[in-house]
Design goal:
Shape: globular
CATH class of the largest domain: Alpha Beta
CATH topology of the largest domain: Rossmann fold
Strand content: 15-25%
Structural class: alpha/beta
Number of domains: 2
Strand order of the largest sheet: 4-3-1-2-9-10
CATH architecture of the largest domain: 3-Layer(aba) Sandwich
Helix content: 40-55%
Distance between the termini: 22 Å
Radius of gyration: 18 Å
Number of helices: 11
Order of helices and strands: EHEHEHEHEHHEHHEHEHEHE
Number of strands: 10
């Protein structure tokens, strides 16, 4: 495997850009192929079989780009598909759940952790399972927040509607005296300021995107796959973006949150893979 090959990153939509952004910051030499499944989001309300089928199609597409590693930058797909697809691949593949869970367990002072995510991620119970493997006495309170993804995808990051819905969702967590909250969906860091304001300064917010980039960097170094090339300007060929729908909308949003302008997003028919 060529260590200068790109890293594949995928999500149901724009949320995985929070992971791509951290990879760009922490590993500026690496090339990235990003795919957002904007035609079929949200994943959180889909069945496990459906999310697994979608994930396999996207992975087959990414493999045509000769990626050296893949990051499932989606909590739902990490919960539903990672364990299966990692057995099917001969390149490293990681999700976003384990790194976030580990950070939460290390961060909590009172042993009370909250997790917010999609219906799929929450119903899978994966965060609770992983955290209790690390620390059996941990107290985990979970809350599905299905409206956050469509709100983020619509760009309503600082809207009163988002504030109102977040207040309703988070009220149950505020009553459980948690001191750590895992943002268990890669879309959620994009409304971090709202979530932090509602939860208060005494609650630490864990962003698995940041922790996943750290895990990926260590993995690539361990496998001798870290890029050795010179750091380049963030041009479009260094970072390539693909979606299954709404390419122009994706381009505008990606440019607003990534360190470099996204000049082009290509729409592909992923169901053909």
């Amino acid at each position: 495997m060529d260590r200068n090959s790109p890293i594949g990153v995928f999500d149901s939509g724009i949320g995985g850009l929070t992971v791509a952004r951290e990879i760009m910051r922490q590993m500026p030499k690496e090339r990235i192929i990003y795919f957002g499944d904007t035609a079929r989001l949200p994943y959180g309300s889909k069945s496990q079989d459906t999310v697994l089928r979608y994930s396999r199609q996207i992975i087959r597409f990414l493999m045509t780009k000769e990626v050296k590693a893949i990051v499932i930058a989606c909590n739902t797909a990490s919960a539903y598909a990672l364990e299966t697809v990692e057995r099917e691949l001969d390149i490293p593949i990681i999700g976003v759940i384990r790194a976030g869970a580990r950070t939460a367990v290390h961060s909590t002072r009172n042993g009370k952790i909250g997790v917010i995510g999609t219906e799929g991620t929450i119903s899978s119970g994966i965060y609770t399972d992983v955290m209790r493997q690390m620390r059996p006495d941990i107290e985990v309170t979970v809350k599905a927040c299905p409206l956050f993804v469509p709100l983020v995808e619509e760009g309503l990051l600082h809207d009163t509607v988002t504030d109102e819905i977040a207040s309703r969702y988070l009220s149950v967590l505020k009553g459980r005296f948690i001191d750590t909250l895992v943002l268990g969906c890669t879309h959620y860091p994009l409304i971090r300021s709202t979530l932090g304001r509602i939860m208060g300064d005494e609650v630490a917010l864990v962003n698995p995107a940041y922790e996943t980039a750290i895990e990926l960097k260590a993995l690539l170094e361990e496998k001798d796959l870290a890029c050795q090339g010179a750091e380049e300007d963030g041009g479009n060929e260094k970072y390539q973006f693909y979606v299954s729908d709404l390419a122009e909308k994706f381009t505008a949003f990606a440019t607003s949150i990534l360190p470099n302008e996204v000049k082009e997003t290509r729409k592909i028919h992923v169901e053909g893979y």
